[in-house]
Design a protein that fits this description.
mainly alpha, about 50% helix, DNA-binding, 2 strands
DNA sequence: AAACTGACTGTTA
DNA sequence: GTAACAGCCAGTT
């Protein structure tokens, strides 16, 4: 569990998820070029030590729901709410509103550069 | 070494 | 709407 293992790649990517947005396990896997390795992303999150600095709470399943059970789920929801993310009546996050969109980020960056030019 | 277990997901029925 | 299944792979029996 070191070097540039799959887990490390996952952590590096999860660290880039902006505050107030969420990504799905599958999305992380896809961005890493492992389209069907969502489960391993879940493993990576599970293996995470408590004070790793990785914003694990920003990773939810493809429905926009929390995939944990028990008190861990409560913690995740609390963390996300504190970041400004809202849940609907069924405990679901609107990926439309809060989903991480790396491509849009790039676009915004480009637009900003154009403005400054 | 083999079988089993998941913080998953898209497809198929 | 539900259910089964395949694909993926690290860790744990």
């Amino acid at each position: 569990m070191q070097e540039d293992s799959f887990f490390q790649q996952v952590y590096a990517l999860v660290r880039r998820i902006p505050v107030g947005t969420v990504a799905s396990y599958g999305q992380i896997a896809t961005l890493l070029g492992k389209r069907r390795s969502a489960r391993q992303v879940g493993w990576a999150m599970r293996a995470l030590p408590p004070h790793s600095g990785v914003p694990w709470q920003r990773v939810v399943n493809s429905e926009g729901k929390i995939s944990l059970s028990g008190c861990s789920a409560d913690l995740q929801e609390a963390l996300l709410r504190s970041e400004g993310i809202e849940f609907d009546a069924s405990g679901k996050i609107s990926l439309e509103r809060f989903g991480w969109q790396p491509e849009l980020e790039e676009r915004r960056l480009q637009e900003k550069e154009e403005d400054e030019r």
